[in-house]
Amino acid sequence: MTIIDKRGRIISLWEKTRGLLIFCACVFGIGVALRRFMYNCGFKKKTRLKARVISVGNITLGGTGKTPLVEYIARKLKENNKKVAVLSRGYGGGDEVKLFSKRNKDIPVLVGPNRAETGKEAVSTLGAEVIVLDDGFQHWSLERDVDIVTLNSTLLVWEDRLLPAGTLREKTDSLKRAKVFVLTRVSPDSKINLWLEFLKSINPNTPVFLTCHRPLGFINSSGESSPLNLIKDKDIIAFSGIAGPEAFEETLKGLGARLVYSIRYPDHYYYNSGDLQEIVKIAGESPFIITTEKDLVRIKGDKLDNRLFALAVELEFLKNSDRHHFSELIGAS
To answer: For residue 95, what are the domain limits?
Structure first.
């Protein structure tokens, strides 16, 4: 497989200015701690909504599988006849919101930076009984009943640094606030024992759930579905603008595809016509061009051609007992 990394300039800048970034990370950490102190000591007010609030968040930038978990929770609540609404800030141009809305037309999503206000609107206007707060672990202004933190099991957060020197939004001791841990992208290569030992040292009484991203099939830009064996024994190219392209690439290879080229763009990248033309040129005679669902919703107007498909995935708990216990914790059992 040939990797074409379009993130090169970003990575190069990071390497050249590492010393400065480490200093900036210290300043960032002080700012985060001060803001948290202001809320904890009552200098800044927290809002309590007249609804149950379930927060799904993380302590790193992207790549933890947070969006599939938000969708899983919202669907479970909906299936149990709960009036549910999702609150999102709409980062990255709102591609995650677009994807969620496309797949869940019957669940309202309210977008805005002030989620206390959008939460009040969801309760008063939509009659929401349960609010799912997307990316809410650092949103201290809103009280929540359940704080769920997603963690990418393929990355060891205790070896990471604070932004901008690394990907951490907070120091790892912030995980003490979590009420539920969800380890995502679990595979035979995941260092689960190390993770369980680390999380136990942080918060020994917090339940830990193991999940993976189960591929469902492929969809084209018209929303038509194709089975997983679509790419089996085929030479394909892939492209993605996500935080963790490696997992996406491994999934495609696991489905039996021969991945010839993989083009990696920055997270939340918006493709222009020049990018799409380059992708078609690189694809050559390959019968399929594969991307992610998040990337598919970012391709406006221009379509590559009828070879373009997106891999659809969903969150899956590795143990049935975990699935039932998790449903109880979110009030969907």
So the answer is: 52-213+316-330
Two tokens at 46? 């927290």
- Which residue carries 């030992």 as its tokens? 197
| Residue 44 DSSP SS3 | coil
According to DSSP, the residues that pair with 182 across neighbouring strands are 150, 209
**If you ran DSSP here, which 8-state letter would residue 266 be given?**
-
**Domains in the chain: how many in total?**
2
Query: Quick one: 174 and 261 in the same domain?
Result: no
Spatial contact of 146 and 330, defined as CB atoms under 8 Å apart: yes
Rounded Cα gap, residues 301 and 22, in angstroms:
41
Within this chain, do residues 321 and 299 fall inside the same structural domain, yes or no?
no
Structure tokens at 256: 């039996």
Sequence length of the chain is 333
Q: Are residues 146 and 162 in the same domain?
A: yes
Q: Torsion-angle region of residue 256: left (phi > 0), alpha (psi -120 to 50) or beta?
A: left
Give this prediction's pTM: 0.91
pLDDT score of 86 more than 90: yes
CATH code (residue 193): 3.40.50.300
Q: Is 31 within a domain?
A: no
Of 179-183, 245-249, 284-288, 298-302, the range with the lowest mean pLDDT is 298-302
Question: For residues 183 and 33, what is the distance between their CA atoms, to the nearest angstrom?
Answer: 25
- Residue 62: per-residue pLDDT: 79
- Whether residue 202 is found in the same domain as residue 256: no
Q: What is the dihedral of CA 299, 114, 182, 294, to 10 degrees?
A: 0
- Where does the pLDDT of residue 18 fall: very low under 50, low under 70, confident under 90, or very high at 90 and above? low
Together in a domain, 251 and 208: no
The answer to the question of residue 287 being in a domain is: yes
Sign of CA dihedral 107, 216, 153, 242: negative
Q: What is the pLDDT of residue 24?
A: 85
